UniProtKB/TrEMBL annotation:
Organism, scientific name: Coniosporium apollinis (strain CBS 100218)
Principal place of residence: other
Signal peptide: none
Gene Ontology CC entries for this record: mitochondrion; peroxisome
Entry keywords, A to Z: Acetylation, Fatty acid metabolism, Isomerase, Lipid metabolism, Peroxisome, Virulence
UniProt record similarity statement: Belongs to the enoyl-CoA hydratase/isomerase family.
Pathway: Lipid metabolism; fatty acid beta-oxidation
Protein name: Uncharacterized protein
GO molecular function: delta(3,5)-delta(2,4)-dienoyl-CoA isomerase activity
Localization annotation: Peroxisome
GO biological process, one term: fatty acid beta-oxidation
Amino acid sequence: MAPSNYSYKYFNVTFPQEHVAHVEINRPEKLNAFVEEMWLNLGQIFNKLSHDPDVRCVVLSGAGDRAFTAGLDVQAASQGSILGASGTKLDVARTATGIRRHIFEFQSCITAIEKCEKPVISILHGYTYGLGLDIASSTDIRLSTTMTLFSVKEVDIGLAADIGTLSRLPKCVGNQSWVKDICLTARQFSSEEALRFGLVSGVFGDKAEALREGFRIAGVVAGKSPVAVQGTKSIVNYSRDHSVEEGLNYTAIWNAAMVQTEDVKAAMLAGLQKDKKKPTFSKL
């Protein structure tokens, strides 16, 4: 069950095992396509989970079997403030300012997943289109199914993808040619191709199997020191965007404080014990 402070119209937030949260996008009748309320709620959820001391890892999936998410609900967006035509004729600079602010707000809601202190495992199933790849590329570990279909759809609606895919995807896969291929053509590609280029780290027979593996990994991560896990995510993300020297310096500064944790002693003591008793770690 979800605590009352995790109650949202379009999301199911549950805690199926110790220290693990499950966030499920819940609009299956519309292929989990996003309207504005949904991305605002998504940001709120991950900001809460980031600071929730009972949570150490998060699994993210979509309700139903048909889609992780088909992306932005284009019909709803066409009537809103991004794609829709304004009834009032505004100065170009003022119109652009409003659109830019809206895009920044949208981006920040998806970036909340990447900034979440807890590792996030996404289970990509069915249609994973457009915004689905924006969301997926902001997660830490990506798993998919043999039936998952991916597409960066934005050029098909006259846009350059602006919520994260074009910035994160090249760093997820390290192949500029392939990224430009899928982004410029908006072509559909399979999990086999996603695995081959490093977008996902595992492909499973169906959603249920992928979820089981996601929860298994989440359970392993949740059993580690939360100090070590949060530090590892932060350092890897920082190093992705900086030079090796800058990454090493950041690591030294981080661990100058964090290596003093009691978690190091607990983990080392457990490793020395012949019965291999699993260490327990305090909340963070």
